[in-house]
């Protein structure tokens, strides 16, 4: 374990138990969010070429007048 990691561990250990538990819960949530972001990034990388092609096609169709404005009140 690195020196900075040991310092963090010592800081956490110096907290009262109730604060340690809150910190652990916050870290757990943060790590789960990070895992979700990594999965999302991986999915985007897999489909990046398809998304770019779809975007180009949509721009071409819009330029030819095939697109209409969306009425958000109708959603």
Word description of this protein:
This protein is mainly alpha-helical and 75 residues long. 77% of the residues lie in helices and 0% in strands. It has two helices and no strands. It is elongated. The model has no long low-confidence stretch (mean pLDDT 92).
Low-confidence stretches: none
Quick one: how many beta strands?
0
Mind telling me the C-alpha Rg? 24 Å
Q: Strand count, sense and closure of the main sheet?
A: none
Q: Summarize the amount of helix as a percent range.
A: over 70%
Write the layout of secondary structure elements.
Blueprint: H1 3-13, H2 17-63
Short key terms for the protein model shown above:
75 residues; mainly alpha; 2 helices; 0% strand
Task: Explain briefly what this protein structure is.
This protein is mainly α and 75 residues long.
């Amino acid at each position: 374990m690195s020196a900075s990691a040991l310092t963090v561990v010592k800081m956490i250990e110096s907290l009262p138990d109730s604060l340690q538990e809150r910190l652990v819960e916050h870290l757990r949530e943060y790590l789960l969010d990070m895992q979700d972001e990594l999965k999302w990034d991986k999915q985007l990388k897999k489909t990046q070429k398809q998304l770019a092609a779809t975007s180009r096609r949509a721009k071409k169709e819009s330029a030819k007048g095939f697109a209409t404005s969306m009425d958000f009140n109708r959603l």
